Amino acid sequence: MELFLGVLAWCAGTGLFAVSLQWLSRANPGEKLPFIGHPTRTPGGAWALTALAIILLIMSFFMWSEVVGRNWALVAYVITLLPAVAIIARHNRGVPG
Q: Cα(64)–Cα(72) distance, rounded to whole angstroms?
C-alpha cells in the first residue's frame, strides 16, 4: 500500500511541478528562465503549485524509502527533474538572444 501511495504522490508532485514551470514559461515569454534561481515574473499560483509539489515529493520519498530503499527513492527524484529541465530548455530555446 505504501508503494502505491508513494507512486501516486510522486506522479501528482511531478505533474504539479511541470504545470508550475509551464505557468512560469507563459509569464515570461520574452525572457530566459534560469535553471537555478528565480525568473523575473512569477505568478502566485506557480508558488502554490511548487510548494504542493514539494510536499507530495517529500511524502513519496519517505513512502518509497521504507519499501525500496533510499537509493531507489533518490532515483525517482532524478527522474522528476527530467521534465523540468525539458520544459526550461524548450522555453529558453524559443527566446532570442
A: 8
Is residue 35 domain-resident?
A: no
pLDDT tens-digit profile of 11-24?
Answer: 999 999 999 999 99
Residue 49: give the domain boundaries.
7-30+42-93
pTM given for the model: 0.86
CA distance 22 to 2: 30
pLDDT digits (tens, 9 = 90+) for 40-81: 999 989 999 999 999 999 999 999 888 888 888 888 888 888
Is the per-residue pLDDT at 89 higher than 90? yes
How many separate domains does the chain show? Answer: 1
Residue 11 within a domain: yes
Residue carrying the nine cell digits 530503499: 69
